Amino acid sequence: MEIVYVYVKKRSEFGKQCNFSDRQAELSIDIAPNPELAALYVERNPVDTGIQCSASMSEHEANTERFEMENCGVNHVEGGWPKDVNPLELEQTIRFRKKVEKDENYISTIVQLGSIMEHCIKQNNAIDIYEEYFNDEDDVEVTEEAPSAKTINVFRDPQEIKRTATHLSWHPDGNKKLAVAYSCLNFQRAPMGMSHDSYIWDLENPNQPELALKPPSPLVTLEYNPKDSHVLLGGCYNGQIACWDTRKGSLVAELSTIEFSHQDPVYGTIWLQSKTGTECFSASTDGQVMWWDIRKLSEPTEVVIMDISRKGQLENALGAISLEFESTLPTKFMVGTEQGIVISCNRKAKTPAEKIVCTFSGHHGPIYALQRNPFYPKNFLTVGDWTARIWSEDSRESSIMWTRYHMAYLTDGAWSPVRPAVFFTTKMDGTLDIWDLVFKQCDPALSLKVCDDALFCLRVQDTGCLIACGSQLGTTTLLEVSSSLSTLQRNEKNIASSIFERETRREKILEARHREMRLKEKGKVEGEDDGQKEEEGALDLNELVAKAEEEFFEIVFSELRRKDAEAMKKKPKSVRTSAGVGGGSGGREGAMWPEFLEAGAPCLVVFFSPS
Amino acid sequence: MIPIRTTLDNSTTVQYAGLLHQLTMKAKSTVRDIDPQNDLTFLRIRSKKHEIMVAPDKEYLLIVIQNPCE
């Protein structure tokens, strides 16, 4: 429909002035919405519409005027001369120069600049910054492999009544067999019907031992003869020495007579390097070290009594718990005692007094392991009470290095045969610690929990890769260490020897200082009234002792109570019974381990010897 | 740039002076561009054969050519 408005005007009225007048709004047209049309459409819900709210920009290209570049060289000619100076005339230039040189500004500037310059020149003279460093060193292949060890095999005691694995010995050729000595070291607590057998295991077969050795009394130590791999030497719990030949079977080939043997369990037996390969020696807590020839075990060839007062009195002798012998130093041997003293002896001395060369004291308890460093025999490792200590033969008053006091008692230790700075220790809480002195000296490089019961003994195979540890329930675990711990590192020998030397020097300096201080004190005391001092000293001593005892027990009990309180909060753990290795000997000094030590509380144990 | 005092021959001096003056100016303006509060105090150019050290100032320039210690 069209909307049309017709405008009509007469011809005669063209050109006339328009006369506008208001009138009312007239509705021209009204189109109502037609709802029927809606049916033609479908409502769309929702409706997608794009909306953008952003600054509206426009793009426009423009071409700038070209920038002309040109390469050209510059020839410097002297210039910049002031107008009145003719550069060509020498006289004038010289005069100008002299004038400038007299200028104050110039002088001060030159002085200042000169000092800066001098500094840099001197620097250059001192150091050549383009020097080639590290020319000679080859690229180091640093293996960042963390030290690790894993259990390969576990050999369990086939007997029903479990005994402690007290000693391990690797087969000398090929290291395919392991001899383990089993016994119960608890003093008179060995259960009835406990078997006396010790076994030789083949590493491939952990289910059944290859050979059983049947001694008359349980074996405390067992060693393969390094020269003849069929012969084994064992030290018995009753003090006898027994010898086996594996070709002949499991029964004892030779046995020493009881009258001439030790009176206490034999804790250390070592084969000697001799032409016949039949000599050995043994040590026991009865204070004697005996030399034997296995062809004639009826009596020892030689007996030495470990009496440090050098009188050869058996009553004063110290019980020997560990024995050390290095075939490169055939006349010397060392004995670790129950009292915490290491005695170094000379076999070839003429009189018994001279046999004992010197003593090293430093441990608070029995020394369970004693071994010289295979690379540096002057330094030896002792393991006892809660620490492991490294000693040097030159430093007699104290050890040169020691570990901190651990929470559990250390039971055995050994050097690694391939790395001079690595040694292993076992503890009564079943952990094996591997120490690497080159890497870290205050903590073990690796600490592994091998089993839940206490570990008693440790033996490293000659290649340095395999370690066997024996536990309280007779389980022997075979571990393999990572190659970083069993291969000789570059420079390690030098580093290790320098570590030992440095520590020895330090100890010597301290020793000298202590000696000086003591001499000074002696001088002071001698000047005063001697008699009175002595008496007072005696009284004070008794009082002091009583007081010290009281305080000591107080501290221990409060510590125990605190531990109990903590244990109550956590899950209850089974109380480990310590085998009381120290007490099993019925030793001289009556070293009875009180029960509270089993909790592993670090405390100082003072031995009061009934003198 | 007029060389006031020199231990080398004239032409070398003039050449060094001219070139290093320009370089110093450039270095100074660079330092100032990065931080207007900053200023160039010393310039060292180490080459295979020598080390050239320039100590600039408002009016003067001190240039030292040193052989490396080898």
Automatic annotation (TrEMBL), chain A:
Any one GO cellular component localisation term in the record: outer dynein arm
Residue ranges, annotated region (Disordered): 567-587
Main location class: cytoplasm
Keyword annotations from UniProtKB, A to Z: Cell projection, Cilium, Cilium biogenesis/degradation, Cytoplasm, Cytoskeleton, Dynein, Microtubule, Motor protein, Repeat, WD repeat
Alphabetical list of SMART domains matching this protein: WD40
Keyword Repeat: yes
Record localization: Cytoplasm, Cytoskeleton, Cilium axoneme; Dynein axonemal particle
InterPro entries to which the protein is assigned, alphabetical: Dynein_IC, WD40/YVTN_repeat-like_dom_sf, WD40_repeat_dom_sf, WD40_rpt
GO molecular function, one term: dynein light chain binding
GO biological-process terms attached to the record: cilium movement; outer dynein arm assembly
Pfam families found in the cross-reference section: WD40 (PF00400)
Subunit structure of this chain's protein: Consists of at least two heavy chains and a number of intermediate and light chains. Interacts with DNAAF2. Interacts with DNAAF6/PIH1D3. Interacts with HEATR2; probably involved in outer arm dynein assembly. Interacts with CFAP53.
Family: Belongs to the dynein intermediate chain family.
Role summary: Part of the dynein complex of respiratory cilia.
Stored PANTHER family: DYNEIN AXONEMAL INTERMEDIATE CHAIN 2 (PTHR12442:SF7), DYNEIN INTERMEDIATE CHAIN (PTHR12442)
Record's protein name: Dynein axonemal intermediate chain 2
From TrEMBL, chain B:
InterPro entries documented for this protein: DYNLRB1/2, Roadblock/LAMTOR2_dom
Pfam families: Robl_LC7
Keyword Aminoacyl-tRNA synthetase: no
Locations listed in the record: Cytoplasm, Cytoskeleton
GO cellular component term, pick one: microtubule
Highest rank taxon of the organism: Eukaryota
One Gene Ontology biological process: microtubule-based movement
Role description: Acts as one of several non-catalytic accessory components of the cytoplasmic dynein 1 complex that are thought to be involved in linking dynein to cargos and to adapter proteins that regulate dynein function. Cytoplasmic dynein 1 acts as a motor for the intracellular retrograde motility of vesicles and organelles along microtubules.
Protein family (similarity comment): Belongs to the GAMAD family.
Protein name, entry field: Dynein light chain roadblock-type 2
